[in-house]
Design brief:
single chain; alpha+beta; about 25% helix; 4 helices; four-stranded antiparallel sheet; extended; Alpha-Beta Plaits
Length: about 150
């Protein structure tokens, strides 16, 4: 599915699994950003296609730019990037942040809703002991409810 970036509604197919042809589909990341006042001042004085700059950088590390938006609110804009792995995502964000043009950058890996069932199934089999807890509990331990509160012996 091709993302529809120009329609005002962000619709993106997100997948991280191998395709039948053996090609690995990369993870997608949403990056929220705010420019510093100097970067905004430079942009107004000499406007340029910022999406093209981001696209070139992301493609240079084997990724792609799905969407790039400026917006109103807490952040000045957002981008959806497809990148080969978490290390590449971290290096890309570090390179962008180290430019000094941003006051705030926040990155989130996007997870497709259809992946949530298998993620929940994996979580059901894991045990976690909360701080100060005396007994590990699993989300699937429904005898005490999902993720029951640990009870200390009296």
């Amino acid at each position: 599915m091709k993302p529809e970036c120009g329609s005002g509604v962000l619709t993106v197919k997100i997948s991280r699994s191998a395709s039948p042809a053996g090609v690995v589909v990369m993870a997608k990341y949403m990056v929220l950003f705010s420019f510093g006042s100097d970067a905004i001042r430079r942009f107004v004085a000499r406007p340029s296609d910022r999406a093209a700059v981001v696209r070139g950088m992301v493609e240079s590390v084997g990724g792609s730019l799905e969407c790039y938006y400026w917006m109103f609110g807490h952040y000045d804009g957002m981008a959806v990037l497809e990148l080969p792995d978490a290390d590449t995502a971290a290096a890309t964000i570090l390179a962008i942040v180290s430019s000094g043009a941003f006051t705030r950058v926040e990155t989130h890996q996007l997870i497709e809703a259809s992946d949530l069932t298998s993620i929940a199934e994996r979580a059901r089999g894991m045990a976690y002991q909360p701080p100060g807890g005396w007994q590990a509990s699993r989300p699937s331990d429904t005898s005490q409810g999902v993720n029951p509160v640990s009870r200390r012996p009296r």
